[in-house]
Amino acid sequence: MAEMTADQLSDFRKDIGDEDADNYVFTETEINRLFTRADSDYDRTVILALEQLITNAAKFADYTVGQTTERRSQVFDQLVRTLDIKRQSTAAGDQATVFMGQMESYPVKSRDVPSEYEDTLEWT
Predict the structure, then answer these.
(1) How far is CA 98 from CA 17, 43, 95, in A?
(2) Average pLDDT of the residues of the chain
């Protein structure tokens, strides 16, 4: 079984938001199992973990008691968005697209009337 380094474990927990030491979602053994399943690919490990979290979050139900409402389905929605972002960044090779350009300033033409009336008027 492949094992993550201490730095990778720390990064992994931060990348999936599993930073509450008193209540970790994944044990180190589970993380290393995911790492093995992902053929020691860190990004794929994070994706597998997010997929497992989504599967678990699908069980959550919204409920209302009196005037208090808790929408646990938001957890599912946020995890799905996070997974989409991670998949896109992994597919792009984590390379940012850089656009190099130059902004130019053009003077604004001063007009007495709006352009829609321009054809009906004679300019002197």
Answers:
(1) 28, 22, 9
(2) 82
Domains of the chain by residue range: 6-91
Please report the beta strands in the chain, taking only residues with DSSP state E, as ranges in sequence order.
63-65, 68-70
CA-to-CA distance for 80 and 83, rounded, in angstroms? 5
| Pick from 47-61, 71-85, 91-105: least confident | 91-105
One-letter identity of residue 115: S
The pair of three-digit structure tokens given for residue 16, joined into one six-digit string? 């999936």
Distance in Å from the first CA to the final CA of the chain: 85
- DSSP-assigned beta bridge partners for residue 69: 64
Residue 104 has what pLDDT?
A: 66
> What's the pLDDT at 60?
83
Q: Token pair for residue 9?
A: 């474990």
Of the candidates 82, 75, 60, the residue with the CA atom closest to the CA atom of residue 15: 82
SS3 29: helix
Q: Angle, to 10 degrees, between the axis of helix 6-16 and the axis of helix 42-57?
A: 40
Name the 3-class secondary structure at 14: helix
